[in-house]
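Record format v2
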Amino acid sequence: MDKADESPRSGPAVAKGTVTQRAIERIKAMIAEGLLEPGQRLPTERDLAAQLGISRSSMREAIRALTVLGVVEARHGSGIYVTQLQAGDLLETFGVVADLSRGPRLVELLEVRRILESTATALAAARITPEQLAAVEGHLTAMNATDDPEEILAHDLAFHREIAAAAGNETMAAILEGLSSRTFRARVWRGYREEDAFARTRREHAAIHRALAARDPEAARAAAAAHVGEVEEWLRAQRSAGAPSSAVAPAPVRPAPEGP
Amino acid sequence: MDKADESPRSGPAVAKGTVTQRAIERIKAMIAEGLLEPGQRLPTERDLAAQLGISRSSMREAIRALTVLGVVEARHGSGIYVTQLQAGDLLETFGVVADLSRGPRLVELLEVRRILESTATALAAARITPEQLAAVEGHLTAMNATDDPEEILAHDLAFHREIAAAAGNETMAAILEGLSSRTFRARVWRGYREEDAFARTRREHAAIHRALAARDPEAARAAAAAHVGEVEEWLRAQRSAGAPSSAVAPAPVRPAPEGP
DNA sequence: CACCCCGAGTGGTCCGACCACCTCGGTGAC
DNA sequence: GTCACCGAGGTGGTCGGACCACTCGGGGTG
């Protein structure tokens, strides 16, 4: 783990990948080992490049990589800083997964969300504070008071976000945020509102809120699972049907499971 | 709106971020919109840079960012290709989260894993094939046949990986893989083996295997939740206790800035 | 036909320059 | 003494060019 790594075999060529890749690992290791604390400022790009014996260009690629991963943050004119390494920082990339997932992957993603969301809602039922409950109720009434799909979606997201926060697990909340936000939800909602799903969604949200107000974890879990499962089933059916949506890849669907 | 003018000067630059950031979004959008299929080869770095009107350096940073996100893959001398966008490709970054998480975040991460792992094990109990069950049993016996911690850990990981695969949700399996592998597990195991946890772990794994063989989803869920919860509780107690920092290593590099 | 070699094309690395922005200290007005 | 202003230096952001390492396919060789 020191500078001169003692590879048993394979001579002096310790270069296991590109220089940039090594730089990424080095900086990541510095943070993991505690040499760099959250919020701390890193050396300048030029100094870092000199320390690792690489060019500034390569170091910049490494910095950029760590930036998109949410590990460090570059402030123009000021310096590079380690993020707080909060759940939200590191799990921001989760949204990319949702953005780029299609077909069967979307159903799988929704299944994961159903599992986490139901558990989070159950936890929230036991831990939610009156203030948080009031906020949830506020989003519920606001959602029922308008017909603008975008506004409904915004309050829908906030509704679940508030519940996830009340569950007391920031990591779980961050994952759910990535699974719910962005085009993921928007894509599902498109065409979804063409049916009579609005009333059903409002009913489901009301059921979740009732369970939270009653401090009933099991009811909350069931209500949340049913809510997400509703969308999940709709999406599953959409896939097995003609799937007219352009967002669905024309990839050959293989619905045939193993036989006998 | 996306057809931006090329005039570098003159007024309202719609550029919301850095050029590199815009390039990342552009390429991501191309893939999301289906202009670039999985496995397809992208234009060369030089062409891409010319298309977006930026330098090759900036484009390279964008490519590097998309590479670490698992969206594209660069092959030296050949070209840049869109990955298959499988769950494993995109969720590889999840391991970084586990690597860099410490303190309360570790407990939260383990809680998420407990939720997903228990559900995955329950699903596996209903869906596992005889071949997969045999593989699980193989890792169980191999785990019990040795005292080498590393070998035990390897079979432990494979044990759970096989179960996650049997659950039939690749996305969930990929997330669990990121949550379990790497230094995350190794860090927990170090010092953990100092106690009498080996026998307990073997007993818990045997219970999971029994539930799978009996095709009992509820028993499997309970066994898996107890198994992960065991580690979770140990970690929680470790934190409340003195908890000598495990992140301390002999500083290999201590950059001494040159004096004025 | 099989094999080898080589050159064009690609990503990987490096360099140097310049620009845009932030920070901080000095300076002056009040 | 206080505070607003402002300039210089340092920082990340961008650019263009050059060269290296590697891959791949086509043409020559046996």
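The first helix of chain B runs from residue 19 to 32.
Chain B has a mean pLDDT of 85.
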